[in-house]
């Protein structure tokens, strides 16, 4: 391609919905005179910038000076575990900026809690996980606002969007807590809090729109930041363009689905290899892969029969019109059950038994605990229309899996470690939605829609000499396989210590041969194994941690980063208690000091969790 | 140690096993570190070999080796334990402990009676190894030196009728076993948490480097040759006068192992050194062992066994050295005769008035099968039995020393659990196989798992030719190392590759003639076709009471092996 262009530059007006007039002018000015090649590069740069969620450093972003003190700034704080809250916060910021308002996007992890007293406009997007707990990012701020140390915030106008999962008892608890605590401190809620369920997109969008509308009065467009382009400035490694997204995934090919538990294991854990060939997709150690899956066609047929609907009936799901059967396979959540479905299905069918069940929350939760959508329909088959059924179901959401490979090792492949959920219950075989698709229904060579979900809260230390402690029982091993591949490729000198556990040594030692190789080569300095069912007393990783407490503490004192991946409900909590005990025992710390030590690790990003 | 300048010492670069024995600190190596290594179920480097001296082999389930590699798992490492049980004798209390451990801690849940007249546990995982030794120790059993370059479990004819002679012979088997045991405390230290004493172990008999190669000893009571003297380095042939043991003829230098394609290796019969009175037994045993220790080939392990030493130095030189070291002169051999090797299945009454029940155990595998609960049966018998159990070199089990009033109860249990079956053919009783796949790392072809079907086919052929009351000594061994003793069978199969065997013919029923290879590397179908033809000829033109092995030699189907060192490969 020639350096200069005879290409026909179409004259385009300012896309007013996205950019303000001054922003648009600044951009056009900056890019005028660039070659086609440069333009392509810039487009990728900008996409990468957007995906990374990082604002341009001050030195690079020459903001148009605003009349000091005049224009208010909206601070957008997010507390995100899987990236959804962060995604919404980013989209909020884009729209705020587009409206010409000033804003600041900050992870709660990077936010000094006392700063809150200086804020005038605050938007909070926070997820809840486990039993009503805040995500790691949010722990400190969340706790701080609930203490007596928290300042008055009389001047504050705020809005809260909570993300959660209504199948849990403490639905959206973290968002509710922020709302309640800020109100108590004198803040004024300017738009009603919205508690989003798993299918949050539409509600979140509505909340964003409403908030921007509300801000109008306080914000003037005069202070809007303009973006100045500096062609040729380096993009930080790893923030390259993610062309493919959750909404526009890449159609990848399944290369390998290999069971990696022994034939006598009670677990069916698979090593999955997916080809990203030619997609240009890049990912970093610590990222997750989003997998769009198809439900089992047999399951769709069974539901159609049970509710006496027609497979060919046209239905509309999220603006797509398609046959009912296609919708059941491709668009609707059929495995995870939740109260909302029971309610809607009951209303559509008039089922008395379900009506009764809905009255008893605890009984409903118990009932739903091991049942999939299809079980509810099997238990209570009633004729309902396809449209009613579609309305009762949640849209299908992709599943996120921690990536088990490093591109320095596997190049254009991505590897996952997946527990194939597959069990008999209530007289029928049950499989997980995504795991059943990847491990059973999809044949090698088949196609699967994927996208990378970056996770900046789970990153190897920047300094390759920094020691690393990895705690990843069960499929929690996945990111550590990626870490070790990465550290191997880097030639990292830092020590590495892996804690792994599973039921049986002979059957469930995931990637045993690889760990043996890393121990032999010296890359893996230490490995501590807990096979819970190989002896009378169950031994788990936290027991090994305690046994090794002295060394664990020593490593941390040497600056080690500590990572935990896997089960959130039990393991991560037990590991955390073990760590606190280690700090008390081997660090001579009081309860309070131990907690503070853990908090300091977390703040320094030396204690990172990827738990689910 | 005597005469290091002997011209009979092989000079050259020592085999690597010599290094590892020398560096092992009397068989300790770094076994204890390996026991603590949680990353692997196996033993590393030298320890892999050293645990053999403690009676264990590292094995894995070969059926799933490839599958596990795909699963990114190491082979399913485990150990096989071969107990030291001189003469194969154990008491009911010991049996119950063995039985329970097999149930609770072995992958296969079986007790495997073997041709070394003892039992093996198969599939013990590393974390359970110490418990295994401690469990056995608690009932007075160990596994010291049942493998490795040492004198292994000492066999003794399981003749239940001549109870008094058997008792004396058995006592000698035990004494010889004890006398030749390694003296190192490594076994107790490692497995029984024995105290570590800061003194240097001495190995006055075996030497600090132990023997050049495995060494096997028997005590045999003619006319039975159940222990197969010609498969053993050292044999004491019991000579009795008036029902009392008076001494032994000493046979040295038998052995069956060979290597495919290596004609410097061959099976060899033992030579008769002559008679010694009882009081010299231990001295002679020690002298044979130390002579082999000093003269055996430590450069080439394939030529290290006693049989090759005898060929190299000459029988007369070896015998003279033994006489010198033991301070005895061999007398002229006393006459004896071997007439059979098989066990007499069923009840016999001993001259002491006690009864003995020999149970046929196919392949020696004591396990509960769907239609015959052999293991439960043996356990139930052990619970009421007052005598002892005797494992035989034919892999069968004798419930020995039953008083008349218990006979009925024991027989009822044996029948209930399929330990006595009415329809076992003579051919099945005379058929034997080593363990081979899936556990034995050396196996080249199936043996134990192949045997039952192979015998079914043989039964049909025998019936077809009207030979159902006859039998042929039929033995299958999965590799040429010889555990199945196919090199002393009338029809011997030696594993060559999956589904393929070398077919040997022409051994005799007494076990005094080595069979010669008839066809190399052939399939089961080819073997059965050949046997169909030859059994037909035998049925048609045999002489009175002529065995199949004698028939094929007489009729020139196969030339007899006379002196295997010279003519085995002719």
Subunit arrangement of the protein: heterodimer
**Head-to-tail CA distance between termini of chain A:** 48 Å
Q: How would you describe the shape of chain A? A: globular
- DSSP E strands of chain A, number: 21
Uncertain stretches of 5 or more adjacent residues of chain B: none
> Please, what is the average pLDDT of chain B?
95
Q: How many domains is the backbone of chain A divided into?
A: 5
Mean pLDDT of chain A: 86
Q: Globular, elongated, flat, extended or rod-shaped: what is the shape of chain B?
A: globular
Q: What CATH architecture of the largest domain in chain A would you give?
A: 3-Layer(aba) Sandwich
Uncertain segments of chain A of ≥5 residues (pLDDT<50)? 1-14, 55-69, 221-240
Q: Which protein chains make the most extensive interface, counting residues with beta carbons within 8 Å of the other chain's beta carbons?
A: A-B, 23 and 16 residues
Strand content of chain B: 15-25%
Going by helix content, strand content and strand pairing, the class of chain B is alpha+beta
* Helical fraction of chain A: 25-40%
Assign a percent range to the helix content of chain B.
25-40%
CA-atom Rg of chain B in angstroms = 23 Å
Main pleated sheet of chain A:
6 strands, parallel
Distance between the amino and carboxyl termini of chain B: 40 Å
Radius of gyration of chain A: 26 Å
Q: Tell me, what is the CATH class of the largest domain in chain A?
A: Alpha Beta
Describe this structure in words.
- The complex is a heterodimer of chains A (612) and B (570).
- Helix content of chain A is 36%, strand content 19%.
- With 612 residues, chain A is an alpha/beta fold.
- Chain A is globular.
- Chain A folds into five domains: 1-71 and 221-241, no CATH class; 73-219, Rossmann fold; 250-293 and 398-453, Elongation Factor Tu (Ef-tu), domain 3; 297-392, NADPH-cytochrome p450 Reductase, Chain A, domain 3 (Up-down Bundle); 468-611, Nucleotide-binding domain of ferredoxin-NADP reductase (FNR) module (Rossmann fold, 3-Layer(aba) Sandwich).
- In chain A, helix 7 (297-306) crosses helix 8, helix 9 packs antiparallel against helix 13 (386-392) and helix 21 crosses helix 22.
- Chain B has 570 residues and is α+β, with helices and mostly antiparallel strands.
- In chain B, a hairpin with a 5-residue loop joins strand 4 and strand 5 (119-124).
- The mean pLDDT of chain B is 95.
- The A-B interface holds A 258-263, 271, 505-507, 509-516, 519, 527, 529, 534-535 and B 38-41, 64, 67-74, 76, 125, 127.
